[in-house]
Every structure is written in C-alpha cells, then in structure tokens.
Specification:
The chain has 118 residues and is mainly α. The chain contains four helices and no strands.
Length: 118
C-alpha cells in the first residue's frame, strides 16, 4: 500500500490519516500503559522528556530557519524576533504555552500587516 496506490482524490487523505494515527497512537497507548508504572523521577522518563523536548525545539528551529510557504517570504530577523518575544511572554505569563504562542503569532502578523505584506 503506497501513497499513490489509488487515483481517487480521497486516497491520499485517508493514507495520511491512517498512517498518522497508526504511527502515533501506538506510542500514546504505550505511554498511558507504562506511565502509571514509572516514577516521574525515573531515568527512562527523564530521557523520554529530553527527547520530546529536543524534537519540539528542532521543529520550531526548522520553521524559523528553513520555513516553507508564505513564512519563507518573511525576513529571518522577524521570525527570530517573534519567536523571542513569544518566549518572553511565555516566561512572564508563568509558563503558559497559549500566551507565548499567541504573542509570537500576534507579533508576526502585526509586523506583516504594518509592512503591507498581509
């Protein structure tokens, strides 16, 4: 079974949905199953948290340094500045992820509107 196995318009969407579900839900179920049995201070859980944090940081860095789509047309200084201000808002707000994300997006959108790019 491949991404191009069928010519129907819906097949790629179903393929991505099933592939994404199978690839991620196994680990979620395993995490729930094992999570109750592990201490939060165990070395295995510390390793898992480090890897997860590293993956998120890598995705964010990739979006900032090597963006695609419309984000690629924005200056890198703007992307870095918006991420930095979002991180600062996250820290000031008591580590609320929603606040940091919203501020970062708001800064990016406001500067683009001011420059007439949106």
């Amino acid at each position: 079974m491949t991404f191009t196995a069928y010519a129907d318009w819906w097949w790629p969407y179903l393929f991505i949905l099933l592939g994404g579900w199978v690839a991620t839900d196994f680990w979620r179920f395993l995490g729930v199953y094992l999570g109750e049995r592990l201490s939060e201070q165990s070395q295995l859980l510390v390793l898992v948290r480090c890897i997860a944090t590293g993956l998120v940081a890598a995705v964010i860095a990739n979006l900032i340094v090597f963006p695609s789509g419309e984000l690629a047309s924005t200056p890198m200084a703007l992307r870095i500045g918006a991420a930095g201000l979002g991180f600062l808002a996250y820290l000031v707000s008591g580590k609320k992820v929603v606040v940091g994300t919203a501020i970062g997006e708001l800064v990016l959108c406001l500067v683009l509107l001011w420059r007439g790019a949106l």
